[in-house]
Design goal:
single chain; Arc Repressor Mutant, subunit A; two-stranded antiparallel ribbon; 2 strands
């Protein structure tokens, strides 16, 4: 590329960013536009640091990218009848709070689907199916981490509600106390 062509591309880039007020943004935009006009050829034009980082991430091989902490997926598939049963079951449970909602979904897995061992992705899948069904008592907003936290809380031996226990491979199962809670409902205060 000859010097006259480079000067013309610089002039075009300047015109493209002429109306911008913020000088930092204007400089970054100018560098980006000029870089594109020059065909990304490296002729001494410094590139914006954020643009360089973004390009490095895009060009990095996928195997070197960090993976999410948990890549668990649920294999649960519900038909129309099971979806109706999920809503009815949840409405009968009338759970309180995140832990109660998680346990109601876990109880459905155990009682209605016959799933004895499960993980947070299974509960999250049921929760995502439950929301559009509009149960009588709307479940609290929950993410996968909220569900995991609630499940760990329900496992803790120091809690009165130790309704879950850990199984192998980061799976959970319902404890004997949990089975009693499903069968007989919430504990009542005796006077």
């Amino acid at each position: 590329m000859n010097p006259d062509q480079i000067k013309e591309k610089i002039r075009l880039a300047e015109e493209a960013v002429a109306d911008m007020k913020d000088s930092t943004l204007k400089r970054t935009a100018f560098e980006t536009v000029l870089s594109k006009l020059l065909g990304d050829s490296d002729i001494g034009v410094s590139r914006a640091p954020s643009l360089r980082k973004r390009e490095q991430r895009r060009s990095a091989p996928k195997s070197t990218r960090p993976k999410p902490i948990s890549e668990k997926t649920s294999s649960i598939k519900l038909d129309v009848g099971q979806l109706k049963a999920l809503k009815e079951f949840y409405d009968c449970q009338v759970p309180e709070g995140t832990e109660g909602a998680v346990f109601a979904l876990v109880a459905y897995l155990h009682e209605k689907l016959g799933t004895k061992k499960f993980h947070e992705a299974d509960v999250l899948k049921l929760y995502q199916h439950l929301l559009p069904l509009k149960p009588v008592k709307k479940p609290p907003a929950m993410s996968a981490s909220d569900i995991k936290r609630a499940m760990l809380w329900l496992v803790a031996p120091s809690r009165k509600k130790q309704w879950l226990e850990r199984a192998e491979n980061e799976m959970f199962q319902i404890s004997s106390q949990g089975l009693l809670h499903i069968s007989y409902g919430p504990e009542t205060k005796r006077s």
